[in-house]
Specification:
Layout (H helix, E strand, L loop, with lengths): L3 H6 L32 E2 L12 E2 L5 H10 L5 H5 L3 H9 L3 E5 L9 H9 L7 E5 L6 H9 L9 E10 L1 H7 L8 E7 L15 E5 L8 H4 L19 E5 L8 H6 L6 E5 L22 E5 L2 H14 L5 E5 L4 H11 L5 E5 L6 H8 L12 E5 L6 H8 L2 H4 L3 E5 L3 H4 L3 H8 L5 E3 L8 H8 L7 E3 L8 H11 L5 E3 L9 H9 L5 E3 L7 H10 L2 E3 L8
Parallel strand pairs: 3-4, 4-5, 5-6, 6-7, 7-8, 8-9, 9-10, 10-11, 11-12, 12-13, 13-14, 14-15, 15-16, 16-17, 17-18, 18-19
Antiparallel strand pairs: 1-2
């Protein structure tokens, strides 16, 4: 990483070591540059500038106006803006409210934490910060550097993802500084202790990825929170969203957390073998009563227990996602108890999902007052047959479904005509995802669309056998309603058919396609009509 002087002289030279991302400017009430409206310089040469008049004095542009302009520029323009003048560089930094920093591997004689502290001193009005690195750094020193920055007390979102764990002691030490945080994401925590969360009174969302490098030995971790648990008053945490990854059966301290998560509305478990504190612990049930959304991703060892508890305790649950884990029996019990009350059901269970589960949902129509199933997403569910899907579609619950995803489901290949039947039965269908059904044919799509005229979102990603004929059918039947179309990884959909579709689809606002497949003609049409053309956006850092 370069020194502070070198970065100042070169404008934005720190981007060579740390890549930043800028978002919206800070509110107008926040102080801006120390050189408010003064110290400008004349830009443009003789014969340049506006109207060929010899340049424009940027002192005539007040700081607030410049910051407003900077807020409208794309992030890619930041390096060019920073090179105009020292004043512009200072204003650009003052208007930056969101920043992502990627730490390079540590080099001899250079302290990453010191360089980070120097860089953060130039961004005094940050509200969201991400510090990430795949390399091993002293995570405690880096976190202390962040806590010492001028914007630390302003931060509302922090993502801290380094190649080494941060200690619970350091988190306790800096928690008062970060008292305004509403969102926190940590990668690796050692020892596994959560007591410091009590010092973050505004924290609504917390995510922990407990990587293998931070695995905690049970003999050590037993005393972390458990030693103080007996007799301690249980003060609820304000957490509403919680994501835990990599929890093992030997981990201790989770009981302290579960007992204080009565306000949880969204819970995600990823690659977890346990919910902590051993199988005899009952603390986990404390967080289930008010839960609205539950996600279990690759948690086969603990999925059955969680599903059975959720069936009995999660009376308000409206959304369930289960990927790669959960037995047939536990899932069936859940469906009988809670299936009809769900709004969203998202399953990727190649060998565990059967027709029985779909029938259990349809059989309970009218038993729950919260509403009915509106979103059904199935991925790689090879044991589901057309009979199961038809039976669900013929029920009142099935008829009310508004979004269906059948991703990589070979039942579509085994049973031609199934899509047409579903579209005829599910009259409220608005969104359809058929991604990665590689043998799907244009004829099948055309027959389905003739009975499905209200689609606003359709995904054909990875359907390699489809051609421009499917786009013609889509335009004919849904051209007045469709807004989002995904044709990425569809080699048969290209050229004139794509351009014609983009030109004629009345409400189209996003065409998802690889950059390399977007022709200049398509880009011209998109610019004229205000259509976003390109790949799906990556998830942000916060």
């Amino acid at each position: 990483m370069g020194t502070a002087e070198h970065a100042a002289e070169k404008g934005d030279a720190e981007h060579a070591a740390l890549r930043s991302r800028r978002a919206s400017p800070t509110p107008a009430t926040a102080p801006t540059s120390p050189r408010r409206g003064g110290g400008g310089r004349r830009t443009g040469g003789a014969g340049g500038g506006c109207g060929g008049g010899g340049g424009v004095d940027d002192a005539a542009l007040c700081d607030d106006l410049l910051q407003e302009v900077f807020g409208l520029l794309p992030p890619a323009a930041a390096p060019a803006v920073s090179l105009v003048s020292r004043r512009w560089l200072a204003l650009l930094r003052a208007s930056t409210s969101r920043l992502t920093l990627r730490l390079p591997p540590a080099s001899t004689g250079v302290s990453p934490s010191a360089a980070l502290a120097d860089l953060l001193s130039r961004y005094p009005y940050l509200s969201a910060l991400a510090v990430v690195s795949a390399a091993a750094h002293d995570a405690d020193l880096v976190l202390l550097a962040v806590a010492a920055s001028p914007s630390a007390t302003r931060l509302t979102a922090l993502r801290f993802s380094l190649g080494s764990p941060v200690s619970a002691a350091t988190l306790s030490a800096v928690s008062l500084t970060f008292s305004g945080l509403t969102s926190l994401h940590l990668t690796a925590l050692s020892p596994l202790s959560f007591r410091w969360l009590a010092c973050l009174p505004c924290l609504k969302s917390f995510a922990l990825v407990n990587s293998a490098s931070a695995a905690v030995d049970s003999s050590v971790s037993t005393s972390s929170d458990d030693a103080f648990a007996e007799g301690e008053a249980v003060v609820p945490l304000p957490l509403e969203r919680l994501s835990l990854c990599g929890i093992r059966s030997g981990h201790r301290g989770l009981g302290w957390l579960w007992q204080r998560c009565g306000s949880l509305r969204w819970l995600q478990l990823r690659a977890c073998d346990s919910v902590g504190d051993g199988p005899a612990s009952t603390a986990f049930t404390e967080c289930l009563d008010g839960l609205l959304e539950l996600e279990l991703r690759a948690c086969r060892s603990v999925a059955d227990r969680v599903l059975l508890l959720a069936a009995d305790r999660c009376h308000a649950l409206t959304s369930l996602l289960v990927y790669d884990g959960g037995s047939r029996e536990a899932l069936l019990h859940f469906m009988h108890q809670r299936g009809a009350a769900l709004h969203t059901l998202d399953l990727r269970l190649p060998l565990d999902l059967h027709n029985d589960h779909l029938l259990a949902i349809g059989a309970q129509q009218g038993q729950h007052s919260q509403g009915s199933l509106a979103v059904l997403r199935l991925q790689s569910c090879v044991l589901i047959t057309g009979d199961g899907l038809r039976s669900l579609a013929l029920t009142a619950i099935g008829a009310g479904i508004q979004e269906v995803a059948l991703v990589s489901c070979d039942v579509l290949e085994r049973e031609p005509g199934l899509l047409t039947f579903l579209s005829q039965s599910m009259r409220q269908l608005r969104r359809l995802d058929l991604s990665y059904n590689e043998t799907l044919k244009d004829k099948e799509i055309g027959a389905m669309l003739s009975s499905c005229r209200n689609l606003i979102d359709i995904r054909f990603r990875g359907c390699r056998c489809l051609t421009g004929e499917s786009l013609v059918s889509l335009l004919r039947h849904c051209g007045q309603s469709v807004e989002v179309v995904d044709i990425s990884r569809c080699p048969g959909m290209k050229g004139a058919s794509v351009e014609f579709f983009a030109q004629r689809a009345t409400l189209l606002n996003h065409l998802i396609i690889e950059e390399s497949s977007a022709s200049e003609e398509l880009k011209a049409v998109a610019q004229t009509k205000g259509i976003k053309v390109g790949p799906l956006p990556c998830e942000g850092s916060f």
